[in-house]
Structure formats: structure tokens, C-alpha cells
Amino acid sequence: MRHAEERKELRRTCPLPGRLDGLVSRLLIGLALLLALVAPARAADPSVALFYGEHPPWTELAAFDWVVLEPAYHGDIAARVRAAPHTRFLAYVSVGEVSRHSARHDEVPAAWRISRNRDWNSSVIDQRPADWPAWFVEHVARPQWQLGYRGFFLDTMDSYQLAARTPEERAEQEAGLVRVVQALRAAFPDAKLVTNRGFEVLPQIAPLVDMVAAESLYRGWNPATLRYRAVAQADRDWLLARLGEVRERHRLPVLAIDYVAPGERALARETARRIRAHGFIPWIAAPEHDVLGLGAIEVLPRRVLVLHDAPVARDSAELTYAEAFRFLAMPLQHLGLVPVFVNPDEQPLPALRRLGPLAGVVTLFSNDRSRPATAALLREAIGEGLHVASFGWPGLGEAGVLESVLGLRRPNGAAPAVAPVTFSRKDPAIGFEAMPVAGRLDFVRLAAPPDSEVMLQMRDATGATMDAIALTPWGGYVWPGLGLAGLAAGRDEFRWTLDPIAFLRRALALPAMPVPDTTTESGRRLLLVHIDGDGFPNRSDLPGAPLASEVLLREILERYRVPITMSVIEGEVAPHGLYPKLAPQMEALARRMFALPHVEIASHTFSHPFEWSEVERGAFGKGYALDIPGYRFDAEREIGGSIRYIESRLAPPGKKVVLLQWSGNTNPGEATLAAVERAGVLSINGGETIATRAQPSYTHVAPLGIRKGEHYQVYAPNQNENVYTNLFTGPLYGHERVIQTFELTERPYRLKPVNLYFHTYAASRRASLEALQRAWRWAMAQPLHPVFTSDWVRKALDHEDIVVARGDGGFLVRGTRALRELRLPAEAGVPQVGASLGVAGWNEAAAGERYVHVAADQAWIALGERADAATSVAEANARIDAFERDGTTTRLRLSGHVPLSLSLRHPAGCSVSLDGRRLGAVRVADGLHHYATSRDGTETLTIGCP
Fold first, then answer.
1. Where is each Glycoside-hydrolase family GH114 TIM-barrel domain found (predicted)?
2. What confidence tens digit (pLDDT) does each residue in 760-787 have?
């Protein structure tokens, strides 16, 4: 391994010096092999990853305990360190050589550059000078320590052999190497030091280093032929003997680095398995180390590239209206994936390696013109083993390209179909929300690749066939017009003819892995409530015509003691707003609302922009925002200014605004999202979730949110009463249909939490207030887990950053800070709580899945065939902050906002106590013990078992 400047050529495998031969050699090798094979991997051994590319996949690397980076690319990594608290970053440093391309080359005194490595165009450094160890510490290592690295991967430990010719010279060089390691340890006592080989000096430095690495145990790279190769048995025997000594004599962990092509995942897994069998830590990667490999754990990619042709050149906010985003983002996110949207007609296609690990590629094009760059990317992706799911036109143009890339054949593609056209094959899965129509206009002669599973096939009167929907060896495709059926009743109304979630899972060949879930926590569906402040000055039609805000306070906020997020519009409520005469009364009402302990405070902006893109470009006044005299849009005034007004005049002392609720069309641009982050608050609103019995389609269920540049806009889980009542024109009781939305987003998949979302003016009319009360009563009758809206927003923001990795017998999950619930396919196995770490329990979900409750910011989920006997939580209406076992005693700390109720899985005869007071089970059913208390807040339960 070499510096970045040197990796223009690939490393020549170092010769293996000092091979033993004869009977003694064979005996020593056999002994080392036996010791290595029987030595189990130590629990303390860290997982290790190496990544020397310019664009590390930071999220995925956070799954590893130690990560070695090429520091030349990254500068200060302090922010990366904070984002990955369980990962230690080590800097790659070269001890024995300095690249002639490096800026540091000429800083090394010329007298110390004693030879040249022509293969790598680098200078060999003399290890003998007395000043060299201190120079290395101050000029090479300390700058990396100051940038945030907390360890060093010491490479080129054997380069001195290029200059040292005699045993005496080698001994002097080796003594110098020892002094360098001693100096590093003295300067950085807490650093992790890893040597790449260095077997000759290991007896002297073993007490100072933390790990020894070596390359090419089973699989290597031949730089002369540029080919991957199997390591010869003799070379492997020699290396196993050395590594066995490292492991058994020096008691150091061993990192074995092997090389396998990125597309050969099965071979990489098998190589890692063989290395683990020796008790070594594996790392299997490409020789450039610019693609994430696999090691003691295998990170399971969650990002998926989505190619589409909707216009987005002007503003990333335009993606909001693209069909690829509207129809595919939600199913992908439900599967635990993170979609990355690119329009190859307007944006350069990123290199696959630049994107980092991908779970697959999805396409949705509205036309089929030639796209050479897209064809090249798809060909590369399929060649590297990635799966592709194509919806609509493949977007490749010519039939020849379609066949060469995807294997889809269009014989006589231009010949028209002869009526009648019928379905000759229809999978039972077809007809999810609507049945496709066999029509002559949709028919094209099309044949799926060999070994495909054709789900929908049409045939015309001549016997010509069209394989319209199929799962293929490379993924799957849905031909235009046959997956999303348009309705004649509305130009923009569609229905899925197939289950998009099930199809994507199969087409992308997604592994059975835990995925982050934002709908649920501690096994119960979440409930959040947030109120847009519009209509604070409206008069109610109730007797006496009170302000709508007064009715809202009395009938909702003071009646329902669950977490509620309340906002106001400064331009409505403030004395300097539109209603100065009503301002004293409205401000007094707002103060009463914000003083309630179960109410958190939000701003609904200063002027309530209606069309964000227009006001951001300078349009203002009637039709664009509240017409506040003399005011022109300013993002800082809308956000930071309104927050300062609320905190200084309306909020109780010490209570802060935590949320900004987007107004109008809820589609702010990137710069405005940045203003929210500068203000130090979260934000919500947007999305168009309004699935009802009149519109029973997943096309009406919005995604979790949308990425806009460096920022992420979190959508409200469902729409407010303004949409259910046709902009409050009637029927005013229409908001009761939100119950239908809650039910349709619960089964067959739980897609959304329960979100009571409405405006202040919902309390201005008896009909809308009664509909709102019906929705509240429905929610209060459900076994839900109430949370503040800001807490849910944090969960949504966590969704992209959680990393999942597969290990022996289970999964490692990291980044579960606010988002603590995972959804696990039943086929993966049953969580073994007793053998897991950071896992408090699980319960059954719909659609053949289980919810797994995480009680820390990382978890190890051990799996088995059936439930174990360990005490665990099945469900609770509170957050599980801690879950600890000490022998037969389990301690469980929960924090909630309503009287606690929970269900435990524990053996008979166990006692459950709260503050020393024993709790009796309310009931015992289905192997679960159900408990309830009248207390809320933070509680610690102790479960003692015989």
C-alpha cells in the first residue's frame, strides 16, 4: 500500500524473505497453522476497514471500529469523528519511503534519501539518522493527529531492504525503525498503531503496537498483468507461519488484507470466511482501496441511484413534482433505502465509485431517446453485480442498445399489434390497486432475457408476445403504462398494478436485513400532533363568536394531554402584524398555550409565504404571502426573526422554539432550508399524503422527505384538514377522512405514523371542529406511542445516516440516535435478546416482519430460529432509554409522555417493580405479561427472575 500519489501504479507484492525449508520449516509452519486454526477470534478484536479514495463513504465506514484513510484528501476530520463516535480513524503513513510526487519529498533532508524505488517513483528513507524519529513524529504524524486522526497505519516497513545490502546494514536500519515506533508511542500514547508486516522488527516493537497487517493470504493482485490471482500455497504457508507467531507469541490481532474484484461478492465473502477461520481480522477489497470492501462485517448498502428525466435544472425543489420522486421514493424508503436522484439529461452522471456503496439502480424515464452515458452506467452496474429496476421506458433508445445492456429483445419492434390483444400470462401479484388493460396501443414485441420470471405477458392476434413485466437475472422491469395505470377520471391520478414495495425488494435482490423505521418506536405506532397557526384571529361560529384560537385552547390543547406542537404566524398575532387591535388578546392566548407542559413551540414564519420559490425570487404581496405593509421577503426575518419574537414575547422563560413549520406550498429552496439550520431549529411540512377510500393508492402516500443540496426537508406524515375540506370550502367535516388515511397507511404495510395535523382555523367552524374531535377520539382509542413532533423530525433525519452491517450470526446497526426502531424480515430469524447488545426486545409486525427495539446508539442483533428465554420488551408507549442485564436481573429505563403501559416477555415467576413497589400484571396473554402505571415521565423498572 502506498501514498495517494504513488497509486497511479499498483503495488508489486513484496517478496517473502527468509523462507524456511526442510523438516524444521514444515514443522514450524504446521504448528503455526494449528495454533491459528484453533484460536478463536477475540471478542475485543476490532473490525477494520481501509479506504484510500478521495470520496470515502463516511456513513458506511462508521460501521467499523477502526478505519484507515489516506489523509492527503481530507483535511480536518473533526466533524467526521463527531458523527462516528464508535469509529477511530487512522492515518495511512509511509515510514520507509516518501513519494517523489509528494510535497513532503523535498522537506526530507537529501542525505536521508538513500535509494530509489523505481516501481513507485519514491525515495527510500534512511532509518539510521538520530534525528529521523523526531522528524517523522513532527512532520508526518503530528499534523495528522491535529486533523483528528487517532492512530497510524505504518506502511513500507520493509523498504530499507532496497538499500541495506549486508546483515550489519539491515540491523542498523531495523534499529532505526524500532526508534521510529518508540518515538510514535511516546508522542501519542493513546494512538492505535498498526504495522504492515514489519516481521523483522516485531520482537522489539510488539509491546508498542496494537495490530499487525499483511496482504495477500488467499487472494492477491498481480501488478504486472493487472489481474487478481490466487496466492500460491507455499507463499500462504510462509505467511501463515509469520501471522501465527504474531497471534500466539506476541498476542496481537492480525489484519489479513486480500484482493478480490468488486463484482465478485461471493468470492469476497468466502475469502473473508477463510481468513476468519484462522482467527484473523479480514479485509477484502480492490487494490486501490477506493471501493468499500468487506471484512469482519459486511456493510449492507442502503443508497440507491434513481435515474429519471423530470426537469430539475432550475431548482432542486422541482424534484418535488417529478414522478420518479412522487411514486418511487416512498416505496424505496420503506425498504430502508436512501434514493439519490439524478437526471442524466441535465446532470452529469456520477461515476459509480464516486457514489459509494449502492444497493442498486432504479430508472423511470418518460421517453426512450438514446442516452449513451446511461447505457454505459447500467452496463457497468450490472457487470459489478448491482441489480437494476426499470419502470417506464428504459431510456436507452435503440433496440440494439436495449438488448446489449439489458438483454431485452424487440424483434420487429416497429410492427403494429393486431387486435385483439389479450393477457396470456398474469401473475397473481398483478392487480395490486388496479388491473392493467390489454391494449393495442401499449403493445410492443418484447422478449425478456433468458431465466426471467415473466409476471405479465400480452399476446396479439398474430401470436406475437410482449413480456410487459418481468423479474430478470439483472433485476426487473415494468413497461410503461402497465405498472402505473392512469385513470380517465383525472389526468394526474394513477394506480399501481403491482405492489411496488414487493417488486422493488425482489428486483433489487435486497437482503433480509433490519431497516430503520420512522413509524414505530418500542413496538407501537407513533402519534405526533402539530398545528399550523393560520386563523388565530378568526371568529368561531360557536355561541359568542370566540376566537378560533380560544376554542382550540379549550377544546383541544387543554383537553388532550399528549405531546402537541403549536405554532403561530408572527404577522397575524403580533402588534406590528395585520391585526393590531386583536394582538393583546391573541398574544395572551398564545402565552397560555405555550405555558402548557405538553405543548412545544413552533414558528409558522413571519409572513406565511404561499409560493416559496416565487417569494425567494423576489415576488411578494397578495397571492404570494400575507400582505404586510412595507415588508419584502427575507429568509432570516421569516425564520430567525419570528423565532426571536415568539421567545421574547410569548414563550415562558427558558422555553425555546424548537420547530419551523413550512407554510403555503411548503416547498422552500435550499437557501431557505439553510436559514433554518442557522436558526438552530428543526422544520417540518410538505408532502401530499392523503390516501383515502376515494383515492386508495400508494401514489398518494408521500416520501419521508426530500434532499435539497446539503439539506433535508422532512415532510409531514400526512396532510392537514385544509386538503380534506377542499381548501376549507366544504365539506367542512371532511377532515374525518384522515382516519381512512391512518388505516390505509397501516396495512398491508405500516407506512406512516399517526399524525394529527391541522390549522387553528379548524376550530372556527363547528363541523370542522367535530370532525377534528372524531379524529382525536379515534387516535386516543389506539395503542399508540405519543411523541413530540420535533422528536419525530429527528428520527426522520436519522433515517439516512443509520448504517447496517452483517456479521456472523446477526447484524450490527449504528447511528440509532433518535431513531431507535428497526424492521426485520421474519426470514432473517428471531432476535435473541439475551445474546444481543443494545436490543431491548421485539414484536411481530405486518407483512411478515418484526419490529426490533433498540436501546442505544448502536446495537448488535443476534438471531436464531425461535425466541430465547431472556426478558425483553414486546411493546411500550414510551422510549426505551436503557436496557441492562445483570445475571437474572434486568433494568429497564423508559421515558414517556402519558401513563406508562408496556408488555414484557419474561419467564414465569419473575417480579417487576417500579421504585421498589412490585407491579402486578394487568393480564397475561399470548406469552406476554402486560403492565400499566398511572405515572409518566422517566421511569426505571427492575425485572428479577428466579
1. 86-285
2. 999 999 999 999 999 999 999 999 999 9
